[in-house]
Write a structure and sequence with these properties.
The protein is α/β, with parallel strands linked by helices. Helix content is 36%, strand content 16%. The chain contains 16 helices and 15 strands. The strands form 3 sheets. Strands 4-10-9-8-7-5-6 form a 7-stranded mixed beta sheet, with helices on both faces. Strand 11 and strand 12 form a beta hairpin. Helix 14 runs parallel beside helix 16. The longest helix has 18 residues. The structure holds pyridoxal-5'-phosphate. The site of pyridoxal-5'-phosphate (PLP) has 14 residues, from helix 5. The site of pyridoxal-5'-phosphate has 14 residues, from helix 5.
């Protein structure tokens, strides 16, 4: 007989299932800046769930928008049919994207947004008569979700090695992390703009006329908060333009205020041709992703197509009514509370708190931008990742949710965080690090 609380059936994603199920840590509810665990103890959310609950948990306006939508139009297809909220949301989103990126394709996750963006890039090249441009270029340490496209351009070996040969013709730029020159940088590191020139090397190797697109996260989140060196994104943009290659920013994490503007593109003043979005789009209350595409890319694909369907791509739930309602309400909350600007308003205070950890035991680097921080620990000899995982468990048990990746603690709280909560978060982390081996 199965126990009613049997944990074995759920094969958990990106989880050490055996270890978790031996000592489960379950969340029961959430509100504002806090989770409540199933044993009743409260947790300060240092990670906005999984980089996604940007306006804080269970915001009443979003909750009631979802309730209302579920009771009026539970589902409506968007293949050869439509419903008003999906169009309204696309128009609203276009307004917060960088000028010119005003054509919106809906998906249900970041992974789907990435695969959609890569497919649109390929379709665009073919539509303009450059069908030999089939290569997609990613970057080492990039995380672009878990679709075959995303893991191919992604640069995390653990996410690739179980899955064979992946997408053809992909290549990678080097990552931008340079511990020797940039450790403890406040904001954008000074060194590394020249790493964008890797694209010239790949052009020399493969020929520009084989390359469709380059995809990067403007700030790499999942591999431990890698902030772009000063001038790097500008240089990459210039090289893509020079060689007629599309530039895709994967803004699944950086979108919706994480770095102080609606997008990292706006924050850094560099406009790509395509932006991928998800997470904060609905404040994570309903799964949804989106791809913002430049008018030029969209029009080239659409206007060069024969009569009928222009892009043979889409998801049953593209523009789902509940997700669209949640996203519209989330955009209202972001706008009314000026949350996109909040990460900039708090950035200096946040940076000071982050870098105060410099002298803390085990810390070998601190990095920050907007309301994001990476705190890198020295790995335990012979046992990499174990120290950070112990810190994660201790933090959870003491009432703080952090995220760890390798030996890096990554922090990205809801944008509604207050200064005393920032103090509490870093105070607790210092305490934990000073008390573990
Ligand atoms: C930059 C980036 N792209 C894509 C994804 C994948 O998103 P999802 O897990 O919603 O598929 C993530 C998830 O963390 C991400 O950080």
């Amino acid at each position: 007989m199965r126990e009613p609380n049997d944990l074995s059936a759920f094969w958990m994603p990106f989880t050490a299932n055996r270890a978790f199920k031996a000592v489960p840590r379950l969340l029961a509810s959430a509100e504002g800046m806090y989770y409540r665990a199933s044993d009743g103890h409260q947790l300060l959310d240092g990670t906005a769930g999984l980089w996604c609950v940007n306006a804080g948990h269970c915001r009443p306006r979003i909750v009631s928008a979802i309730r209302e939508a579920a009771g009026s139009l539970d589902f409506g297809p968007t293949f050869q049919l439509g419903h008003p909220r999906a169009f309204e949301l696309a128009a609203r989103l276009a307004l917060v994207m960088p000028a010119g990126l005003d054509r919106i394709f809906f998906t249900n996750s970041g992974s789907e947004s990435v695969d959609t963006a890569l497919k649109i890039a390929l379709a665009y090249q073919r539509a303009r008569g450059e069908g030999a441009r089939t290569r997609c270029i990613g970057r080492e340490r990039g995380y672009h979700g878990v679709g075959f496209g995303g893991i191919s351009v992604g640069g995390i070996v653990n996410n690739r090695r179980q899955f064979g040969a992946l997408l053809n013709g992909v290549d990678h730029l080097r990552h931008t992390h340079d511990h020797a020159r940039n450790a403890f940088s406040v904001g954008q590191p000074a060194h590394g703009a020249e790493l964008a020139d890797d694209l010239e090397r790949l052009v020399a190797l493969h020929g520009a006329d084989t390359i469709a697109a380059v995809i990067v996260e403007p700030v790499a989140g999942s591999t431990g908060v890698l902030v772009p060196p000063q001038g790097y994104l500008e240089r990459l943009r210039a090289l893509c333009t020079k060689h007629d290659i599309l530039l895709i920013f994967d803004e699944v994490i950086t979108g919706f205020g994480r770095v102080g503007k609606a997008t990292a593109a706006e924050r850094f003043g560099v406009t790509p041709d395509i932006i991928t979005l998800a997470k904060g789009l609905t404040n994570a209350a309903v799964p949804m992703g989106a791809v913002a595409v430049s008018r030029e890319v969209h029009d080239t694909v659409v206007n060069n197509a024969a009569d009928g369907i222009e892009l043979f791509h889409g998801y049953t739930y593209s523009g789902h009514p509940l997700a669209a309602a949640a996203a519209l309400a989330a955009l209202d909350v972001y706008e009314e509370e000026r949350l996109f600007e909040r990460a900039i308003a708090l950035e200096a205070y946040w940076a000071e708190a982050v870098h105060a950890l410099r002298e803390t035991r085990h810390v070998i680097d601190c990095r920050n931008i907007g309301l994001v921080a990476g705190i890198e620990l020295a790995p335990r000899p012979g046992a990499p990742t174990k120290r950070a995982m112990e810190a994660f468990h201790r933090a959870f048990d003491s009432g703080l949710l952090i995220r760890v990746t390798g030996d890096i603690i990554a922090l990205s709280p809801p944008l509604v965080i207050e200064k005393p909560q920032i103090d509490e978060m870093f105070g607790r982390i210092a305490d934990i690090l000073n008390n573990i081996d």
